[in-house]
Here is the input.
Amino acid sequence: MPPSTKSSKLAFHWQYQVATALKADSAPLTPKQAGQLKQLYRKLGMYTEPVVSYAVSHWCEFTTRAKCWNGLATCPDTPHIGFLLAHCFVAVSLMTDKKLITLDEIECAMKVLYGKDMYA
Here is the structure.
């Protein structure tokens, strides 16, 4: 899939998930937000859409854990791409805790994305 098509699909996915979670229309993405989604894709690869879906639909749980693990005083009340980008592995951890994805799947993805073993 060409990069622009992948970016458009991911942008639509983000907007749809946010609109569904907030039960309101989602604003068009800014160029900065579109860039943040691309960065998120570079970090998570094929797990980007499932992580976006999970984090947005479980925003309170995700942000609570991110605050606890990272010593944050505050976090956004509504889904924010930049916050998810900064703390995406918290969402991945929650998903593995709930057995939505396995550690083996994540390790395999990390090898593909980063060319190294997750535990090396």
Remarks:
- The mean pLDDT is 86.
- The first helix runs from residue 3 to 22.
- Helices lie at 3-22, 31-44, 48-57, 59-70, 81-86, 88-97, 103-114.
